[in-house]
Queue: 2 jobs
Job 1
Amino acid sequence: MKRFLKEMRLLLNSYWLLVTGYWLLVTTNLRPATKYCLLLTANCLLLVGCVTKEKPLPIFGQRDVIGADTVYHTISKFSFVDQDSATITNETFRDKIYVADFFFTSCRTICPIMKTQMLRVYQATKEMPDVLILSHTIDPEFDTVALLRDFAQRLDVESKRWHFVTGVKDSIYKIAQTSYFATAIEDKTEPDGFIHSGAFLLIDKKGRIRGKYDGTLEEEVNRLISDIKKLRRE
């Protein structure tokens, strides 16, 4: 509401400045150059006021209204270990935008495709210091820190920008399902023993989910890259 009122005030002020400019043009003996500058300024301000504002990305999940405030769903507190044996928590992503996904290194189905597409995100955001990537293994018993380090090295990515994390299996599954709304379960009937989502989740600087994309589809990842740029402008 405050943003709307501010935009309306700008539009009205621009309108009255434009009217004043035309009135001066007709009724006063100002120098032509002065009249021209006034009209040019008024028209520019009116144009700025009329430009359609970029529509913000949606905010996913349940929201609660408490008094005059709206409280949105956010990613719950977590603590995992990455490929450098560093502890990774929510604080790692303070004032950062990040893209999250769930995978395992021995996956032979969608994971190779997902990692190819996530590499595109990594390359597209290399000049964006406020954008990181967080990949959770759903097979922590096999995906040790050493194995994740080797995996990251084979992808030739920097650990400060792309964290591959492991931890307690139940904690990983719980945060996948309840915080990221992503599928991550063990299923021995599946060829690789797990079922997991191919989703890439876009998280804003307040820990809110702002987008969900199919990480196996190039056009969806193109949309993700575009939305990252849009989110940085908010």
Job 2
Amino acid sequence: MIRLIVTDIDGTLVPEGGNTVNPEYMAVIRRLLDLGVRFAAASGRQASSIDAIFHELRDRIYYLGDNGACILKNGEILKETLMEKETLLQFLHALKGIQGQRLLLSSREGYYTDDQDETFCRLVFEEYKGVGRVVEYIEDYTDACIKVSLYCENGAREIYGLLYDEWKDKFAIHVSGARWVDINDFRSTKGNAVQWLQGKYGITPEETVVFGDNYNDISMMKRAKRSYASELSHPDIKAAAGNIAASYEKDGVLEILKQIVEEVQNEK
């Protein structure tokens, strides 16, 4: 029987940066919870941005924020993984020589950036509903950093290519959206966060269902016997998932959640 469902947000439930889902999602998720199925939202977003979508269920579901670097339920941090400060400072110094990216540092308190661009700040703090502020020296906030995100104006693949070979042995680096590259500690992956939940509640991969659409979702797809990629995903992601869900435009995840409700009811 299915006991855990984990879904990505951007590109899977909503368009990138979106904060509105079909209200029926909440009713169906609530039904799953009442049937004893645990539910988690796993995202490169910080918790406040996840909460903008799932606030009415925050006391019952898990937020796997910042690619699993911070696991929360009802505002309580259950697990947090910090980035190593000295290597992070070296990375931030190297970024200064790379054009076309805007830096966002994430901590449990919120997002920090030293980028003054109004459009970028509006994207982070208004569209994504991120909590945080613009600061003078981003290096002052590295003690509590759990993730670095780069907004890439000309697309994520170019910046990813510039960084990957040099830094792949020091950080987990993933394309997480059309214009986003995420950098985490190696321990901070969505897959490790799912594994932590599975271990906490004695849930197996056979009892887990995962939904995603991008490269930072592959690690959690490996933790589930049954996983779905959005039909809009890159072929690599579809191959990793093994199953295809209709796009967010068609509420593809919602339709599968309804099927799982019926499956669980029939098995009880």
